[in-house]
Design a protein that fits this description.
398 residues, 16 helices
């Protein structure tokens, strides 16, 4: 039967998972992939097998109110499908690894202590990532767990790119730019040689555009700079986060408007961005279909910030050979891709309208000086690769 590994990407209202199987003497292969959505409201479990056939589309008990309960529900479903199959390890997406963790690690109690200290830097993600790990520790204490970090891919950046211009004694406390969405960028870098070989060794900007959004500048598949920094609040306008801000705005909120630290945190993480500007929604699809002036303003600002960051990252790279769109908006919104590329036409960038709407990998015209691509990301597969590799090392060491 071989061994099985479970891959978990735990969020506040969803739990994505993959099951991998490794037959004796062979490599890991997908067995199942799915997610539990609507945690805390109307939870549903969706899953497909390795061939894309539906395994489950099931309503779950409404008592599943948090990630711990979702892990329990997932465990019950996995046992019903895979019986007593041997689970040799679990791999997790963990958003923040701080300065200490620049590669996947085996989770220990000391590692968890370090990761809990980083919760203030990623309050929307880190608590849920760690809650899933803790629940599996409680249920299966002997199963090794691997933490894969969204910050690790950016550890290749120069000291200058990571710098926050504070005094050295403050910087020693861990104040630096880290960058995020690293598992997504690492996956894109890994497939560029196959999908877009003409730019894989060159200067590329990858635009990970979703509810959380960022861009990464790469040279030969290595991270040089990113729009996200110390926390996941910097750079682009996002679904509910504002992106880059004058720090004086935060001082004004405290000193002149009398807001508390918790109120400011809620504003920055949950009430700003597309939702804050439009007053309607953080969903790009709703904003694109709306005729409200504030919805149009939100879209205009999203595109404006994206074009501005592309210009900045192009300067860092010393030119640009390719632009790659990925993640929910980047992969599925031809209109947003069109608007961003039009705003960057000064780079000699030109879309092929038919390719842009036709779900082709390359969407730029033959005349474009910069090639433009749409490449679906796969963070779970990247976690699976790291988990499989590290489990293999652990087993060899044993």
């Amino acid at each position: 039967m071989g061994e099985h590994a479970l891959i978990v990407n735990a969020g506040s209202s969803s739990l994505k998972f993959s099951v991998l199987r490794r037959p004796p003497g062979q490599s890991w292969r997908p067995e199942a992939k799915g997610q539990i959505e609507g945690i805390g409201t109307s939870p549903m479990l969706f899953a497909k097998d390795g061939n894309g056939e539906v395994l489950a589309k099931t309503s779950l008990d409404a008592t599943i109110k948090d990630g711990r309960a979702a892990i329990d529900a997932l465990g019950s479903w996995l046992r019903s499908k895979f019986g007593s199959a041997h689970l040799c390890g679990v791999g997790h997406r963990v958003v923040h690894g701080g300065a200490k963790y620049d590669r996947p690690v085996l989770v220990t109690r000391d590692v968890l202590v370090d990761l809990y200290e980083l919760i203030p830097l990623a309050p929307l993600h880190q608590p849920y990532n760690l809650a899933a790990i803790e629940r599996i520790v409680e249920r299966m204490p002997d199963v090794p767990q691997i933490a894969c970090f969204d910050t690790s891919f950016h550890s290749s950046q120069s000291a200058t790119a990571k710098l926050i211009a504070f005094p050295k004694d403050l910087r020693k406390s861990g104040l630096q730019r880290y960058g995020f969405h690293g598992l997504s960028y690492e996956y894109i870098a890994s497939v560029l040689p196959e999908v877009a070989p003409e730019i894989a060794g060159g200067r590329v900007i990858v635009a990970h555009l979703g509810s959380g959004a960022s861009m990464c500048a790469m040279k030969a598949g290595v991270s040089v700079d990113s729009t996200l920094g110390f926390t996941a609040l910097d750079g682009l306008c996002m679904g509910t986060r504002p992106g880059a801000l004058d720090p004086g705005v935060i001082l004004y909120l405290f000193q002149n408007l009398g807001m508390s630290a918790k109120e400011v945190e809620t504003l920055l993480y949950k009430k700003s961005g597309l939702l804050g500007i439009s007053g309607i929604s953080n969903d790009m699809r709703e904003l694109l279909s709306s005729d409200q002036p504030d919805a149009r303003l939100a879209l205009d600002y999203f595109v404006y910030r994206a074009a501005k960051e592309i210009g900045s990252l192009t300067a860092v790279l010393g030119g640009l050979d390719g632009l790659v769109f990925t993640a929910g908006i980047g992969e599925n919104s031809p209109e947003i891709r069109k608007r961003i590329c039009e705003a960057c036409s000064w780079l000699g960038l030109e879309l092929d309208p038919e390719a842009n709407t036709g779900r082709r990998p390359r969407v730029s015209s033959s005349r474009s000086k910069v090639s433009v691509w749409v490449i679906p990301t796969n963070e779970e597969l990247m976690i699976a690769r790291h988990t499989g590799a590290l489990l293999g090392l652990l087993q060899t060491a044993a």
